[in-house]
Amino acid sequence: MCGIISALSYENNVSDSLISALSRLEYRGYDSAGIAYLDENSQLQRIRTVGKVQYLRNAVEKSNINSCIGIGHTRWATHGKVTEFNAHPHVADGVAIVHNGIIENYQELRQKLVSEGYKFESETDTEVVAKLTASHIKSGKNFVDAFKHSIGELIGTFAIVAIYEKSPDTLLGAKKGSPMAVGISPDKKSAYIASDAVALSTLADELTYLEEGDIVVVTKGEQISYTIFDMQNNIVNRQKVLNKVSLTDMSKSGYETFMLKEIYEEAIVARRTYDSYKYDIDVSKFDNVSIIACGTSFYAGVLAKYWIEKYAKIPVDVEIASEFRYRNAVLRKNSLYIFISQSGETIDTLCAMRLVKENGMKTMALVNVDSSSIAREADYVIKTEAGVEIGVASTKAFIAQILSILIMFIGKENINIDAIEKAINSVLNAGFDFARIAKKLAGGRSFFYIGRGTSYPIALEGALKIKELTYVSAEGYPSGELKHGPIAIIDEDVFTIALAPFDQYFEKTISNTQEILARDGKVLLITTEDATASLGMFKNNANIECVFLKQNEDKYYPFALTTLIHLLAYYTAKSKGYDVDKPRNLAKSVTVE
Ligand code: G6P
């Protein structure tokens, strides 16, 4: 949440790197963007714009910048509205700061600084860090010490970088709770501090991730170098890792959006997940399993519960991380705790995992980014093989998550990957008239997604996807539960997407569909070709339309259904003219509580 990039270079074109990195970081937030830099006279300058990075790019291109040092930020608003005043960087007496995270004691610090005579121009928690650093400089400290002192006074989570106009050869960064990486360009002419590897792809091949409480000091002398200090102010060596994010990962490869590209990769992702799965975990030794996650990853956990209990006969709990971490959960011995996260940075999932570790339990992370905080802190890591996911709404990562869990619990030998791949491809290549269906759905006032058994978690994922992308309220419901309240909402403006492959639950979901039709609700029934003969009662009913998937083994239906509901949400949002890659108010990597 919030993207950070900063650069110190011998070349005077750092604004180009800042802007290109910010475009790649937009998935972390796109409420506003900004850069601050020192110009050729070492004067601090700042450019900020509300909205997407493209607006900032336009403003920067007009400014003819010559600068060897600068910082940049793309914002997901927490404290203060989406305005230019609240956009980062924030400045004070020649100091400029960008920040990701939340400073919890900012009000107390702000009062203290106001009493010292500082005037605040924003409503953000971040501005105190700039003023605090400036105040320490004023009291006689050098830039590095002033920054270190300021960081020591902060309570909360943060990744912060700072520059100061009287120290044009120094770039500073601090990390606590939010991720931060530092890297040097292959030609050794530039160094960067950023919030992730994606920002640094094309800029640095090797990265060092900061650990909790670290401060990094990047300096330019005869050469560019950096020194990392730990919480006790000792110089420390942190491991260097290869930056595996490539330019191809960051391109749309001819698709009109990242999301469409990523949905079209779902079959490849399934195959890759299967082929590269080499983990040998004896799940039978655990008495139970607890899965903890947020968002789409949580729904992968809900689906896993159905599969694990059915096939491995191990009881499973699935919990929303933000609830688990604060509800005084009773932890169970001999339980396998699995944390699922695409980004590996979701703060609630990370903190829930830390809680479990603090209680002496072993933790397993199912993550897509192996350099992420969750991956680095977990006892065991299963890397999902979705590849880089850029679209803010998660799609292909879900496929990699559910397949990894299925393999973990039933074994590769019991999975027919050809059938899964075929099932997904049959949706991608079916030639369904999504544009027409989506146009119909776009007229809906609200949506229900219903299903039973393993179709229920997919209904949850379907409802999440459509609300994320189309800004219309949608609920995922177990088909049998609709009559216990929600059915009161049904009328001719409400669409229900009923997920009913021809499995053991088919007849029951069809009965629930009848109940909806009886109340003038509109239904899109997603079923399978072998159900055709059982659907005679819907003939001539204009309120229901059926989409037929290929017949398959029951346990593979979730794969085809997933791809279908992803495409459905995609095309519905497109027909409304919305930005599917960057839905409003969202961010992909949620590093605040
Ligand atoms: C955000 C994203 C969702 C994602 C959720 C959990 O809300 O918009 O798409 O499912 O975070 O993210 P994670 O990276 O932990 O899977």
Structural summary, described in words:
By secondary structure, this protein is an alpha/beta fold. The protein is built from 18 helices and 25 strands. The strands form four sheets. It has an eight-stranded antiparallel β-sheet with strand order 3-2-4-1-10-9-11-15. A seven-stranded antiparallel β-sheet has the order 5-6-7-8-12-13-14. The N and C termini lie close together (10 Å). Strand 12 and strand 13 (224-229) form a beta hairpin. The protein is globular. It has three domains: 3-242, Aminohydrolase, N-terminal nucleophile (Ntn) domain (Glutamine Phosphoribosylpyrophosphate, subunit 1, domain 1); 251-415, Glucose-6-phosphate isomerase like protein, domain 1 (Rossmann fold); 428-585, 3-Layer(aba) Sandwich (Rossmann fold), CATH 3.40.50.10490. The longest helix has 19 residues, at 557-575. 6-O-phosphono-alpha-D-glucopyranose binds at residues 294-297, 341-343, 346, 349, 392-394, 586, 588, 590. 6-O-phosphono-alpha-D-glucopyranose binds next to helix 9.
What labels describe this entry?
Glutamine Phosphoribosylpyrophosphate, subunit 1, domain 1; 18 helices; 7-stranded antiparallel β-sheet; alpha/beta; 24% strand; Rossmann fold; 8-stranded antiparallel β-sheet
Compute the separation of the termini in Å: 10 Å
CATH classification class of the largest domain: Alpha Beta
Tell me the number of strands: 25
* Ligand species: 6-O-phosphono-alpha-D-glucopyranose
Number of helical stretches of at least 4 residues: 18
Radius of gyration from the alpha-carbon trace, in angstroms: 25 Å
Numbering strands along the chain, what is their spatial order in the largest sheet? Answer: 3-2-4-1-10-9-11-15
How would a crystallographer describe the biggest sheet? 8 strands, antiparallel
Overall mean pLDDT score?
94
Overall, the morphology is: globular
CATH architecture type of the largest domain: 4-Layer Sandwich
Helix and strand composition category: alpha/beta
Q: Classify the beta-strand content into a percent band.
A: 15-25%
Considering the protein shown, what is the CATH homologous superfamily of the largest domain?
A: Aminohydrolase, N-terminal nucleophile (Ntn) domain
Give the CATH topology of the largest domain. Glutamine Phosphoribosylpyrophosphate, subunit 1, domain 1
Which stretches of 5+ consecutive residues score pLDDT under 50? none
Helix content: 25-40%
Integer count of domains: 3
